[in-house]
Amino acid sequence: MNEFDVDAHLQAERDRLPILSARPGAFENMYAEGRRRRTRRRRIGALGGSAAVAAAVASVVLVASGSAAPTPPPANTTPTPTASAAPRPAPYPEERPSPDREKALRAALDSALLGATDLPAALGARWRQSEDLLYCSEAYLDGHIWSKRQAEARSWRWLRSRDTAIGQFLGFYPTEEAADAAVAGLEEVLHECAPDSKRTDMSVAVAGAGWSSIRIREFQPLCDQRCSRSAYVYGRVGTSLVLLQSHAPEAVASTTPGLYRALGERVEKAVEAAGEESTQEPAPGRGEPLKGPWVRDALLDGQQLPAALVDEWYDSGGGEYGGIRCDGRTLGPDVRPDDLISHPDHGVAHLRGTELEVRQAVHRLPSERAAETTLATLTAQVESCAEGAGVDVASVWRPQHPAGSAGWTHEFDNRCGRCFRTSTYAYGRVGTVVVLVKVDFGWRGRAPWGKSQPRRVATDQVWEFYRALADNVAAHER
Amino acid sequence: MYVTGAVVGERERSPADELRDVFTAEYGRLAGWCLRVTRDEQLSHDVAAEAFTRLVARWPIAEPRPYLYAIATNLLKDHWRSAARESAANARIGAPDGWAADSSADLTMRDAIDRLNPRHRQVVMLYYLADLPVTEVADALGASPGSVKRWLFEARAALHVALREKP
What we know:
heterodimer; A: alpha+beta; 7-stranded antiparallel sheet; B: two-stranded antiparallel ribbon
């Protein structure tokens, strides 16, 4: 190597290294950002040490549970604006709310936050409330979302168990547009924080508030903010922003959409209790049963049902099996079960064969939004019913069909402990009319007429019943 | 070199003062070092800025210079990994590869360094161009000083062969 001095050439290469000038304000920006990270690390340390937290947090696969299919937004609803589409700044009023109102809203939101006893036992025991702790969202939550000028009231709570942490964040905004903008802003920040994180879009039915389009963003790779392996679930319920942040084991996976729903429902109720309408449209009121001779024409009768199903149908005429059981209480919070008596003039029919029962309901609501809310309520309660009974429910979102309605089918794979049978629901809306078909198959144990084996009808076929009924309703609506 | 928590006259220097000293002394060189590695001025500023941000978050640090270069090295490793993926993707679609080493016949020391394998390139960049001692290079790479010395020997040999044999 004598003829070529590598060291000398490397030294010369070092001397040729350029020296770049810092950008204007670079130090101030770095210093501010570094201090912010330092503060965050100390908070994490207070929680139990950054290493402990990093080890404790686990991935959360936030997809719809196996029993609930991914749910696209329902028809005729406005999706939450994306980060690129959402306008910023938010269209919020400059005027601050009165202190009393802000105080009332804050108290309402505080009361809406889930407590340890509200969390599923499967998530873990010995929950305790933790100090306020915000991770990646901290800057945005502090600097934007929770700006007092934008949000009238806000509230958050952290619950920790031995190996799980769940954060809840609520903010009440003056308008739905402002809340949408806040959601979009949060999405933007989370995307910037972890562009490679996985995002899942889905809809969750929130009873009383309709559908909530939510985003689930999973941080899997380690992020330098140490907020990795966490998941953010966020969306808007009425004029409130709802955010859940999970650092949890896989046990959370199937429950987080349910937690979001539970939190959203409590938010909705709390805000209403605070004396303010949470939505811009009138709240859904009590529905009007459809009456008139056309209803009898619209409802499917034994002749319209496939003969292959049963050889003879008859109208039960009410009585013990006249109402719709599980769902009889679910056609909107303001609809009494008595409204759903088994009488064609009231838009409900109950056909019973030897092994099958077909229930139909058509019910007019005051507005399309009220109808959407009713569908959401129905979805939430059917799933809740299944969850309470410990059975699996296969849910399928059905696309819009010519009658103008999209809808759901829910099939109870196992027999519901309350209905004692295997059931499939199919429902949607036609304009302001909620249309529902429920088919029950067999009974648990020995059926009243001695049949013990349930007779199954394909879910697609139940959906065809719904379509036929919806088409009839649509024809009359026109 | 840098005064950390020291009393200057009657006034104890604040962390901001200390960090500004480090920034003034090191930022330009660190960013230039990054530029030598990446050939991308924007990226170089980003890497240097991120390294300083982490330094602020961790302050006080007894030896800030090795820390800065260690952070920058790790950030650039990530960059190289993504560049490799990008290069592979470009190769698949037949696009020109912006990250390939210069293959012209006029081989310079710079090109020769670029052609080293990643491990050898890192030790050369840290030991020769960043002027870090072997022990701090070892700390930055998470290796033993002995390994660093061996890699340096191998890197020098590779550079010698490459440059001696150039046309």
